[in-house]
Automatic annotation (TrEMBL):
EC number, as in UniProt: 2.7.7.4
EC class (word): transferase
Family matches, as Gene3D superfamilies: HUPs (3.40.50.620)
Gene, per the UniProt record: cysD
Domain spans labelled Phosphoadenosine phosphosulphate reductase: 33-256
Signal sequence range: none
Keywords carried by this UniProt record: ATP-binding, Nucleotide-binding, Nucleotidyltransferase, Transferase
Protein name: Sulfate adenylyltransferase subunit 2
Domain of life: Bacteria
Annotated segments matching region Disordered: 282-303
InterPro entries: PAPS_reduct_dom, Rossmann-like_a/b/a_fold, SO4_adenylTrfase_ssu, Sulfate_adenylyltrnsfr_sub2
The organism of origin for this protein: Paractinoplanes ovalisporus
Family: Belongs to the PAPS reductase family. CysD subfamily.
Any Pfam family hit: PAPS_reduct
């Protein structure tokens, strides 16, 4: 009599199952969820998980992009194609419109990462969203490592790391009063390497800037920023064309590329497996303002 082989679940399958469970739990507990979708790799993976969570039905909530106006063209093109292909409702919360209306004031340095927070909070209030899916992961940054899967935000959209709820045995408490909301992070337990392995497994297409390509860049503080309409050369600076790719995609005025020859998914996986610096630490100028830059923004309402 042959013995039955033990049933084993792979690491990626376990992560996928956890994330899908969280998404379904949100649909059971909340009235007006929304998924933050920028066209970046983490939100792309979240969108694939949402497809699987509710198939064969359509994804039952809209997606929202907090648009700083400082975007990579390749990412916006991908965002629009993906949304159209899935027949989703895209809500765009525009920082430029908020500046034009006087809701926020542009910073002297021209960057917009910080001023997108009040735009996000205004959109949450306008559309009465009570649960917001975000692609943050605990391995990215120390403030995000403090997050729960369900992250409670008060009526002002603010985050208090000392006032979060326990999540024993994967039990998630979504209780909230009108005006309050929950930020939900289905990828909390994923790493950058897990994300890339999943992209390979699911054969998920990505914007081209995630792979090695030639681009005109300028080096500042050890990071390579693309020279474009948002980043101009300063006195004494020179640009050069280098072979680079983007590990993360954010505000084009504050997101740097890394030198790379990884032009395929497998090469990117090998590269990420060998690195010892997180993607935000290596590429995000907005996180270098201070040691607590991310936590300060999260307390104000940022993701």
């Amino acid at each position: 009599m042959s013995q039955t082989k033990p049933y084993r679940v792979s690491h990626l399958d376990a992560l996928e199952a956890e994330s899908i469970f969280v998404m379904r739990e949100v649909m059971a507990e909340f009235e007006r969820p929304v998924l933050l979708f920028s066209g970046g790799k983490d939100s792309i993976v979240m969108l694939r998980l949402a497809e699987k969570a509710f198939a064969p039905a359509r994804i039952p909530f809209p997606v929202m992009h907090v648009d700083t106006g400082h975007n990579f063209a390749e990412v916006l093109e991908y965002r629009d194609q993906r949304v159209a292909g899935l027949g989703l409702n895209l809500v765009v919360a525009s920082v430029q419109e908020a500046i034009d209306s006087g809701h926020v004031r542009e910073l002297p340095d021209g960057t917009r990462n910080r001023i997108q927070t009040p735009v996000l909070l205004a959109a949450v209030e306008k559309y009465r969203f009570d649960a917001l899916f975000g692609g943050a992961r605990r391995d990215e940054e120390k403030a995000r490592a403090k997050e729960r899967m369900f992250s409670f935000r008060d009526e002002f959209g603010q985050w208090d790391p000392k006032n979060q709820r326990p999540e024993l045995w994967a039990l998630y408490n979504g209780r909230h009063h009108p005006g309050e909301s929950i930020r939900v992070f289905p990828l909390s337990n994923w790493t950058e390497l897990d994300v890339w392995h999943y992209i390979a497994k699911e054969r998920i297409p990505l914007p081209s800037i995630y792979y090695a390509h030639d681009r005109e860049v300028v080096e500042r503080d050890g990071m390579f920023y693309a020279v474009n309409e948002f980043i101009r050369l300063r006195d004494g600076e020179t640009s050069e064309v280098r072979r680079v790719r983007y590990r993360t995609v954010g505000d084009a005025s504050q997101t740097a590329a890394v030198l790379s020859e990884a032009d395929t998914v497998d090469k990117v996986i090998d590269e990420v497996a060998a690195t010892r610096i997180t993607e935000r630490g290596a590429t995000r100028g907005d996180d270098k303002v201070s040691e607590a830059a991310m936590e300060d923004r999260k307390r104000e309402g940022y993701f």
